Every structure is written in structure tokens, then in C-alpha cells.
């Protein structure tokens, strides 16, 4: 049962953070990003936030740096909106699972293409031995 409350708080933090970042955060370093996951500690002191950022490595680093520097503002806004007594410390980290999925997809397509090229198709006549 102790996980249910932290899960609910995590979902609320994720929803509010997404809206605040999209509509109110004015930091030019923060590019197009999505809050992919929020895990809240059992004592509600920490919230580990995974952020997926669109762009190259430089843009991703800049976005995470911008979010970390805006953590105080984001923390205050989230607490006001959710109504928590104590504000959890927001700890941002880059979520590279989307990049990994794209890499896996690319590799699977490459293998599929190589298999198609190595086997004769049904329309090609086969030569007898």
C-alpha cells in the first residue's frame, strides 16, 4: 500500500510539470521535452524525473541544465498546484529510452533488408544445381 500514494503524487507531479514547462518556463535552453516518468521516494522528499528531449546531444544537455537551474521555480509551482505540505526535491535526468528504441528499430530494419537481399524472392527463377 505505501506505493499507491507515491504513485499518485508522481502522476500529479508529472502532469503539472509538463504543463508548467510547456506554458510557463521561459528558459531558452529548454527545448522540446517530455516528462516521461516521475518516481517519488516513499518519504516524498525526492522526485526523480526522467525527461525525454528532442534534439542532438548538445541540445539535450542544455535542456537538462536549464531544467536543473529552474528546479526551484518548478518545485514551488508544483507544490502550489498540487497542494502538498512539503515540496519534494526535483532531480532531473535524461531519459534516452526513445533513442535506444529508435536504434533498435534501425537495426531490425537493417537485418530485415539484409535477409531480403540474401534470399531469392518467389518471382525469381531458381537455377538447378
Task: Outline the structure in words.
It is a single chain. With 129 residues, the chain is of the alpha+beta class. The protein contains 4 helices and 3 strands, in the order αββααβα. The protein has helices spanning 2-23, 57-69, 71-82, 97-118; strands at residues 33-40, 46-53, 89-94. A 3-stranded mixed sheet has the order 1-2-3. The longest helix has 22 residues, at 2-23. 18% of the residues are buried.
Explain briefly what this protein structure is:
This protein is α+β, with helices and mostly antiparallel strands and 129 residues long.
Helix and strand layout, with pairings?
Elements lengths: L1 H22 L9 E8 L5 E8 L3 H13 L1 H12 L6 E6 L2 H22 L11
Parallel strand pairs: 2-3
Antiparallel strand pairs: 1-2
Amino acid at each position: 500500500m505505501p506505493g499507491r500514494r507515491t504513485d499518485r503524487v508522481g502522476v500529479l507531479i508529472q502532469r503539472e510539470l509538463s504543463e508548467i514547462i510547456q506554458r510557463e518556463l521561459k528558459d531558452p535552453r529548454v527545448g522540446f521535452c517530455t516528462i516521461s516518468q516521475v518516481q517519488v521516494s516513499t518519504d516524498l522528499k525526492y522526485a526523480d524525473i526522467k525527461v525525454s528531449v528532442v534534439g542532438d546531444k548538445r541540445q539535450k544537455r542544455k535542456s537538462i541544465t536549464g531544467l536543473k537551474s529552474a528546479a526551484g521555480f518548478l518545485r514551488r509551482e508544483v507544490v502550489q498546484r498540487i497542494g502538498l505540505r512539503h515540496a519534494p526535491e526535483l532531480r532531473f535526468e535524461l531519459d534516452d529510452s526513445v533513442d535506444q528504441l529508435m536504434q533498435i528499430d534501425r537495426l531490425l530494419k537493417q537485418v530485415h533488408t539484409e535477409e531480403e537481399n540474401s534470399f531469392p524472392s518467389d518471382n525469381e527463377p531458381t537455377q538447378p544445381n
